[in-house]
Design goal:
The protein is of the alpha/beta class. The protein has helices spanning 15-26, 47-51, 69-78, 98-106, 141-146, 160-166, 177-188, 214-227, 236-252, 256-269, 274-282; strands spanning 5-11, 33-39, 58-62, 84-87, 93-94, 113-123, 128-130, 136-138, 157-159, 190-202. Helix 1 (15-26) links the parallel strand 1 and strand 2. The chain is globular. The relative contact order is 0.12.
């Protein structure tokens, strides 16, 4: 019998962490699933750790070369058997009721509903922070265009047929793959939000993350905006917000001239936001 849910866990050079992630899935109150581990590592493989966990629902796939997180998730999607697809990263973990609550919210919905997402608890070195998302069934396309951070991959449960409609993760993006995917998903499908922190996201300084690499963040955001630029024709304030964030990334990456260009572009699109202009003048190259 095929599983109801396929859970994809990409991993890259962190075999010491993945056991915790897998165990957080195995302990779920909802148990009708398979787990697909896609090993994209090039320094340390997770094969030994994974195969020491004795559960026939776990499948292990190994990339011969490092392809990146988007490609690893796509490999997993293509190997799934379930009607629903969920995602977890190797350094994060689910709370016990995560999958059960999402399946209760999603399983009997109509065909126009394609996904469910949740809030998270971000775990930093010395503090934790809970995110907040909208609650309930809705059209979330404007949210996807407004914020590139609301739909975290580790919170998503997506009906498998959605990928047949909109395609997979864009492997050409060095970052922002989940944000770009959800712009396409929300264009065609409604979603269900659960404003509970059902995932514990590891934000500790000891772990490497794409989000800490400003060059990749800048490149990914630029490519995303270019790809979906037509959707912002009547949404100048939303585009201005993204240009401003790009300016912040460039400033933090010591690209001051480029940062000022983005701050100015943001202000020209939204004159009411004086902070955009303020950042333009503050970041004067000396």
């Amino acid at each position: 019998m095929k599983p109801k849910v396929s859970i994809i866990i990409p991993t890259c050079n962190r075999p010491n962490l993945i056991k915790r992630a897998i165990n957080s899935v195995l302990k779920q109150t909802f148990q009708d699933f398979e787990i697909i581990i896609v090993d994209d590592g090039f320094k340390e493989r997770a094969e030994k750790v994974v195969k020491n966990i004795k559960d026939e629902r776990i499948k292990y796939i190994q990339h011969e070369v490092n392809k990146g997180g988007g490609a690893a998730r796509n490999t997993g999607i293509k190997a799934t058997q379930g009607e629903y697809i969920a995602f977890l990263d190797d350094d994060d973990e689910w709370v016990l009721e995560k999958l059960g609550l999402q399946m209760s919210a999603l399983e009997n919905t109509t065909d126009d509903v394609g996904f469910c997402f949740t809030a998270v608890e971000n775990i930093y070195d010395e503090r934790t922070e809970r995110s907040h998302i909208p609650e309930g069934k809705d059209d979330y396309h404007n949210l996807a265009l407004s914020s590139f951070k609301k739909f975290l991959t580790v919170t998503l449960v997506i009906k498998k047929n959605v990928f047949d409609e909109i395609g997979f993760f864009d492997e050409n993006l060095p970052s922002h793959q989940e944000a770009e995917l959800m712009i396409r998903v929300t264009k065609k499908f409604l979603g269900v939000g659960i404003n509970q922190p059902l995932v514990r996201v590891n934000m500790k300084s000891e772990h490497s993350q794409v989000g800490k690499n400003y060059a990749r963040k800048i490149n990914g955001a630029e490519l995303l905006i270019k790809k979906h630029f037509d959707k912002y024709k009547d949404k100048s304030e939303k585009l201005a917000k993204h240009y401003f964030q790009l300016g912040i990334y460039c400033r933090d990456n010591k690209e001051i001239k480029k940062a000022r260009r983005y701050f100015l572009k943001a202000w020209k699109l939204n004159y009411k936001e004086i902070r955009y202009l303020f950042h333009f003048f503050v970041n004067i190259v000396k």
